[in-house]
Amino acid sequence: MRFSSLFLLNTGICLTTALAAAAGGKEPHYPVATLAPALRENAHAVIRTEEETLLVKSAGRTVRTVRRATTVLDEAGANWATQLVYYDQLSSVSYLRGTVYDAEGQAVRQLRASDVKDYGLSDGFSLATDARGRVADLRQPSYPYTVSFEYEVVSDNSLFYTTWQPQSDEQLAVEQASFRVLTPASLPLRFQERHLPKGVAVAHSQQGDLQVYQWELTALPAQEEEPYGPPLSEMVPAVATAPTTFEVQGHRGSLTSWQDLGLWNYELNTGRDVLPEAVQARVAALVKDAPDERTRIRRVYDMLQSSTRYVSVQLGLGGWQTIPATNVSNTGYGDCKALSNYCMALLKAAGVQSYCALVRADEPDIRTDFPSNQFNHVVLCVPLTKAAKRDTVWLECTSQNTALGYMGSFTGNRHALLLTPGGGQIVCTPRYGAAENRRERRADVYLDAQGSATAMLHTRRTGLEQDQFSQLLHGLDPAQQKKRIAESLPLSNFSISKFALTDDAKAAIPTINETLGLTLPQFGTPSGRRVFVVPNLLSRLPAVSAPVGERQTDIWLASAFSHADTVRIHVPAGFQTESIPAPVKLTTAFGTYSTQMQTLPDGTLQYVRSLHMPRTRFPRTEYPAYVEFRRKINAADKAQLVLVKTES
Amino acid sequence: MFRYLSGISLLLLTLTTNSYGQAPKLKDPIQFGEVTAADFATVAPTSRPDSAAPAEILCDFGKSRIEGAREKFQVIFERVARIRILRKAGYEWATVQVPLYVKDNEVEELQKLKGITYNLVDGNLVKDKLDISKAGFKEVIDKNHRLYSFTLPNVREGSIIEFSYTIKSDFVFNLQDWQFQHDVPVRWSEYRATLPQFFRYKQTIRGYLPFAVQETQAVPYSTSYSEDAKDGFGNRLTMNSGHNAVITGQALQCRWVLQNAPAFREEPFMTTARDYIRSVNFELSGSDFSRSGNDYHDVTGTWEKIADNLQKEELFGALLKQNAPLGAEAQALQKAAASPAERAAAVLALVQQQVKYNGQERIYASQSLRKVCEQHLGSSSDVNLLLVQTLRAAGLEANPLLLSTRRHGRIQTNLPEQSQFNYVIAHVALPDKSDLLLDATEPLLPAGVLPERCLNGEGRLIATTGRWVPLVPAKRYVQFTTAQLALDDKGGLQGKLHLEYDGYAGLEARKQVLALGESTYQTQLTRRWSDWRFTGPLVLQGLQDPSKILQADLPLALPAPETPAALLYLPLAQTLGQLTNPFKHEERQFPVDFSMPHEYMQMVTLTLPTSYVVQEKPANVVLALPNNGGKFLYSVTQPTPSTLQIISRLQLLKSVYSPDEYGALREFYNRAIAKHAEMLVLQHK
Fold first, then answer.
1. Rounded to whole angstroms, how far apart are CA atoms B162 and A126?
2. SS3 letters for A415-437?
3. Which of A66, A353, A408, A644 meets the CB 3.0–4.6 Å disulfide criterion with A467?
4. SS3 category, B550
């Protein structure tokens, strides 16, 4: 037990209440009957009470205590009856306790120490990780019931403080939740309040030598993310906290600005970019005849991509401190820090200055208005010093295939913290718009009198549109690529006669070309004398379901893009067109859409479709209009052409 | 566990054998460290059909043998592997993970790990050695599992990597399993096991590809064994060195080789890859340490023996003899419920209300059944042994039935090995001699219907007279859709849709409702008819009672076309329920295992206003799969001038289709889908 007497004093009130109740024996805990109906609405579980406390013991040590009682209303909420308490080399779990109460509030099961399992949380791809978890499972066969968990984690990694967001999931209501931070006056708390309801604010007080910050939330009804809307974290109340001074394994830093955090990271890794002389000489030889900065970068990046690979090792401070560049040069592998640091060292040997940059990859962007450690990845940033206009080359050092300078959906279009000798600096990674994220498709379809067809399609994808195809191309062999493509085609009956994916190395923006030959036994639907054909072969956009009730949140679309399709349908002899779809043109705030069909001089029918979506964010009031736009697109995409047999 | 070890007598220490006929010594297919520049040349990746594979296993060689040690025997497993990394996507093969098992004081230990990466740089062979102090990590996964991981240095496209290690194991009960196939091509995979005469093992061989070599021969065998000196009470004497002995005799050497195996690929509707991949594994069946060979101690031996052992096990049979925690309730049911089948169903419901299944597939209970009841949570064994016990308490003839779930693999009834099982259910012998199978882990299924995971061949009844009981689906997967629609004068449609989910389709739908919650389920369900507008709420019926058909009703409308046309084209069957072909691929290597027969039926009644007449309607059709494998029926009739009835019925009558039947199955689906796409053409007068 790591309770300090001070800590007991602070939590004294709730503890004594709990003990009195336990001694009384039959006094109900969290009976379901007392739950407000509004909180049950659309909820699978309700947090009855949550008390989270962060006690800052010193610059290098924090103690996090959580006591949470959750009523599980149905099977979909049963995850709340299980608890995983995470720990690693720098933290330990002091205790994990649990109790189950039935609907009336009578205790039916106590968690025993022997019921708690301890697991290594091997992620399946890391060579080594120190992530571990204590796991308890208190699920019950019938609903509703209430589960309470109490646990404490002592951490020697004060780089991360808590982000308190009691409503951490959809369809979870909160009856009451409180968050307290106790910290010595010499280690003042930094915090950011997000989406707090009116009237809720920090209560600041003093207890002995400790500053106390406290928040309380009550009666939060269950929420749901809306389609094409922001994530839950943009909707529900939260308080992010961060230290002013922290210390990890003897490395002390201050955190009042991005500059501070950047400086700590920079200094932690300083001197680790030294290369063996032989490697320096090899780099020098590699760029000897290349005065141009960009050529030097390209050659170094090629060398990196062909001689290293990504191997993840997550142990203690190793999460933030890189292994030295010499090790990478000896073994040819490293994690994101190590490979970025190694590439930085190689570039230095080539006479090019670069900087490591922290990003939050594959997740929503960091909050730039609250300096704190929000990062999970490192990339390399190379400002071009000799370019005519200001330019920067960004390098993803963990990929052996990514094109020079490309930051795709994983790291692009977000903020990064540049680590420089002068400290951290917030910069933007490249952003790709509708002009870059393109899909252009040309299809020739040869129809026969029975309605079957063969088709040859050429598709060129660039920017974010090519990301997943690039992964297919580089990650799988051609037979597997073909299999994946077959699984993704929105067709009910087809076979693939020809298939190839290639990347266009010469293009300015990453580009993947796809050649696809298809046999389509049911492209046209014959019906007596007629054959019905939907000319839009592969580019049908599904409709969006109409909102239930009023739209609550803004529209957040994933990315800007533009699609262009040309389909030529070669009509068999003995048929003439009875009707062709009327042209459609939609010009809206969301984007523009058009389709047009015409008969070419040689009798071929040509269908041209274009969808251009340059923007991604719209106010919530626009949602009905967006639904309507998508409905019209969907209707137009399904428009059909009718061919009729000529009497002869 | 190995009580017979303590019984090793002096007889054994003096055991000597006659000389046996010397078998020619086998040459190893690979020697660690013997890669030369020439080896890079002999691999011509581009000329091979699997040339685009990310990596290729050139040789994977494993050997297991039993050795004596101090007071125990051990399994020594040695492995040498050589892999060519062909593409960057194959880099992951340079990181190797070796799972190790520990239990109490018995361990598996990884030893003698070596690794080398070979690169050809300007025609010269460059070797980089694995440094295990930097690149080797041991992780404690849980109480019984460790994971040793290592990664090889300087791996590039074209590298050859090589590693070798030894696992010294105290668990002579199982030898290390060997898997011959992987998801990259394998040129040569060889496994040898040397089994001394005093231990006898049962082998399980799985998979389809033919072995290049499969042979067994007798070889001379010797090992040393030491025994601590003990006092008269069996206490170890520390001052005395005890006895040492060399055991010599004969061993069985088994050898398997798989050559030029293509990459293994999973396909949809398979049980588990384990059933299809070539592998061998071993389980100890008995021992005989006598000179005469007449002192065989069977540890598993026969299915009957396995059952006998389980009946005595503390966490299996012995539990059933203890006081039933649900005994009082069971006796009340015995008095109340009339027929044995009804009583069994009532007991099943009782256990389901008491204990939730935690998802763990087990044959041994985790603790006493009383504690399981107190915790209200348990594994398949906890839940179903409690069920057996409670059924007995209710006066029924109930016994455990062992099985292997689909995820765990097919049962081979000719190989009596307990490890083939991973799950237990309850069997009730009804008065009419019929079998009633019950599984309390799935409250969403009615009594007598097993969860899909259990539908896997046969199960073994653990009773006084054991036998195999077929695990056949008691229900089909049935989806039934009816629609009553009326066409209005402008070409719009209004009406209602009625959906029924029966058998395993009901289970699937109920599971979705539980996982998503009713409202989210309704939203998701309506997304399946994106063209339609819903004019009222969706009403679910029968959700609570799994013995009933789950029904959903929803009123809906299809708006009239924006521009009125003389002809109205309606692909009605298609709009009401997209049929999709699950078989996108042209070929299939393995059987299609659907678990149970399926049926999809659709019935649409369309009322026409007087202003419309039928101009064209799809032709009626009946299709049948060979060997009575399935039927598709489609018909459009016009019982009255203003009424049309469209019926579509697709039946898959078998649970399993062979690869030979795959083409027909795929085509069957395609034709049904084509029929659904056909238009009904209506003309406005």
1. 21
2. EEEEEECCEEEEEECCCCCCCCC
3. A408
4. strand
Residue-number span of the structural domain to which B373 is assigned: 303-470
| Distance separating alpha carbons of residues B402 and B499, to the nearest angstrom | 37
Interface touch A109/B580, C-beta < 8 Å: no
Among A248, A278, A296, the domain-final residue is A248
Contact B526 A401 (CB under 8 A): no
B223 and B242 in a single domain? The answer is yes
The strand ranges marked E within B262-317 are 279-287, 297-298
CA distance A422 to chain B (A): 33
**Where among A220, A248, A276 does a domain terminate?**
A248
- Please report, for residues A370, A388, A405, A406, B481, the alpha-carbon distance to residue A393 in angstroms, rounded to integers and kept in the order given: 27, 14, 5, 8, 58
pTM reported for the whole predicted model: 0.88
Q: Flag the least confident range among A40-49, A180-189, B72-81, B215-224.
A: B215-224
- We report the CATH number of the domain holding residue A398 as 3.10.620.30
What is the domain-level CATH number for residue B454? 3.10.620.30
CATH number at residue A513: 2.60.120.1130
- Which residues on chain A are in Cβ contact (under 8 Å) with B571? 525
Q: Which of residues 351-380 of B touch A (CB under 8 A)?
A: 352-356, 358, 374-377
Contact state of A141 with B352 under an 8 Å Cβ cutoff: yes
Round to whole Å and give the CA distance between A486 and B73: 53
Among candidate residues B202, B189, B195, the one with its CA nearest the CA of residue B216:
B195
**Which backbone phi and psi does A374 adopt, to 5 degrees?**
-115, 20
Nearest beta carbon to residue A141 from set B50, B94, B376: B376
Does residue A20 carry a pLDDT above 60? Answer: no
Please, what is the angle between helix B380-393 and helix B327-336, to 10°? 50
A598 and A452 share one domain: yes
Looking at the structure, tell me whether residues A159 and A220 fall in a common domain: yes
Q: Which of A16-25, A356-365, B258-267 has the lowest mean pLDDT?
A: A16-25
A133 to each of A94, A99, A117, B319, how far by Cα in Å? 12, 19, 8, 32
Contacts of A542 in chain B (CB under 8 A): 530
Q: B627 in contact with A at a CB cutoff of 8 Å?
A: no
Q: Do B515 and A76 touch (CB under 8 A)?
A: yes
d(CA A362, CA A414): 10
Which single residue is written with the structure tokens 């042994």?
B385
Residues 512-531 of B with CB under 8 A from A: 514-517, 519-520, 523, 526-527, 530-531
Q: Average pLDDT, whole number, for chain B? A: 88
**Tokens at A57, concatenated:** 């013991």
- Helix B380-393 × helix B340-354 angle, to 10°: 140
Both A337 and A484 in a single domain? no
Q: Are B356 and A141 an interchain contact pair (Cβ–Cβ within 8 Å)?
A: yes
Residue A433 belongs to a domain: no
Query: Do residues A207 and A333 both lie within one domain?
Result: no
Cα dihedral A597, A602, A604, A609, rounded to 10, equals -40
Say if residue A420 is in the same domain as residue A546: no
Question: Based on the structure, what is the number of domains in chain A?
Answer: 3
Grouping H, G, I as helix, E, B as strand and the rest as coil, residue A480 is: helix
> Distance between CA B304 and CA B307 in Å, rounded?
5
Contact A19, A55 (CB under 8 A): no
Write out pLDDT tens, residues B603-628: 999 999 999 999 888 899 999 999 89
* pLDDT average, residue stretch B153-174: 94
For residues A418 and A425, is the Cβ–Cβ distance under 8 A? yes
Asked if A141 and B523 come within 8 Å (Cβ–Cβ), the reply is no
End-to-end CA distance of chain B: 87
Query: Considering only CA atoms, which of B612, B624, B600, B609 is closest in space to residue B676?
Result: B600
Shared domain check, B102 and B245: yes
